[in-house]
Design goal:
This protein is of the alpha/beta class. The chain is 33% helix and 23% strand.
Length: 273
Amino acid sequence: MKTCIDWPGDNSITDLPEANPESARHLRAPDGQTIAYHVLQGKTPGVMFLGGLMSDMSGTKAIALESRCRAAGRAFVRFDYLGHGESSGRFIEGTIGRWHADTLAVLDEIARGPQILVGSSMGGWQMLLAARARPERIVGLIGVAAAPDFTEDLMWDQFDDAAKARIRADGILYLPSEYEDTPYPISFALIEDGRDHLLLRSPLELSCPLHLIHGMADRDVPWQTALRISEAVASEDVSMTLVKAGGHRLSAAADLEHLISAVDSMVAHHNGC
């Protein structure tokens, strides 16, 4: 495994890209809910962005990747899970399993050909689940502050007895957010369903290339999670970029440089360049 640590310094991205002005399209799920998405047609391998918990497809990383793929003539997909962004449903109705189903629906019905999955935070968990479910479609994985198993390791195991009793009794617990004015509503269903999708308790049979980018100042998901992922996967083609001053979001210009470079390198690797 190759590891590098990024020190603060200059970067070449000075202006953040703008989103595609076209309206989102909608994919109907089997239960009638709709999944909002944007898609660019182009060269393969395509790039598919998987967002984080309570994030949406209009975030900085997703738009930067879309802009890069548009300039390169590369296929690209971004989407919102149930209860996120422009998709239907309520956030509280979502679970890891349901969002996994959303991810597979977009991968199966919207994305075409081989794909590089880019997963941010909770999207990193979804990325690994999707690669395990569709190994024949996935040629590379890039995790940005990837957070597999967070419902157990970073929520349930960190709750005190009072919080555990409250979420069991009420079915919901409100957690303060560093990024929003309102707290996160975390359902007991999310916790319980998460246990059916834990990945880091046993070897993870994924053989495709994997690049993990993680901030060493991340207060939400410890950077050691990236080490756990690298140890769990079967692939020997694993690299890691640790950003010494980086927080959880990794959306600053220098962070976008790391992400775009990782995608470009993985595309070149796949194409034998």
